[in-house]
Amino acid sequence: KPYVYSELAGRFVRALKIPSYDNEVVLRVVLGPQNHMFKKEGIDDFLENIYTVSADSDRMGYRLEGKEIAHKDTADIISDGIVKGAVQGPGHGNPIIMLADCQTTGGYTKIAHVVTSDLWKIAQLKAGNKIQFKSIEIDEAHKLLRRREDDYQSIYTDFHQYRIIG
User: Fold this and answer.
1) How far is CA 151 from CA 25, 116, 123, 144, 155, in A?
2) What is the pTM of this model?
3) How far apart are CA 4 and CA 164, in angstroms?
4) Which residue, 8, 48, 112, 122, shows the most beta carbons closer than 10 Å to its own?
5) Is 114 exposed, middle or buried (0-12, 13-18, 19+ CB in 10 A)?
6) Per-residue pLDDT of the chain (166 residues; tens, 9 = 90+)
7) 74: which DSSP letter?
8) Would you call 49 exposed, middle or buried from its count of C-beta atoms within 10 A (0-12, 13-18, 19+)?
C-alpha cells in the first residue's frame, strides 16, 4: 500500500548509517578488462597517485587530472561494451570514470572498474575533489556488495521498525 505522510512521521535513519561525504575518497577497483594494454608503470601510476576531478565532468563521466597512465601501444580498441563504473584510459592518459549517463559502447581501453559498492562515492564528488584507486580482487568486490546490500536491508528494517513518538 502507498505511504501517506502521517505514516512516515517520526521515522528516522540511525546516524551511524548516514555516510560521510568526503572531498577525498579511495575507490576500490577490479583491474581489467584491458589492463594488459597498459605498461606496468602505467598501472602502478594509476594505483599510487591521487587524481583530481576535472571541471569538465558530468553525469556521463568524470574526467580526472593527474599522472598520465602509460599504454603499451595504443589506447584505441574495437568498440565494446561500457557500464557505469568503467575507468577508461584514453590516448591523453588521464582516466575517465563512466557514470550514470555513460554511452553503451566505446573504443578506449578500460584499465579497471570501480566496484559497485563504491559508485555512490563518485556521484557525491565535485570538481577539485581527490580520488585514489585501490585494486582488489573480484571475490572481495562481491563481499563488499553483499555487505552493502545487508546495510540497505538494515536501514529499511530500522526505518520501518523504529519511530520517534512525541
Assistant:
1) 20, 14, 19, 10, 6
2) 0.86
3) 17
4) 112
5) buried
6) 565 566 667 777 777 778 888 899 999 999 999 999 999 999 999 999 999 999 999 999 999 999 999 999 999 999 999 999 999 999 999 999 999 999 999 999 999 999 999 999 998 899 999 999 999 999 999 999 999 999 888 888 877 776 666 5
7) -
8) middle
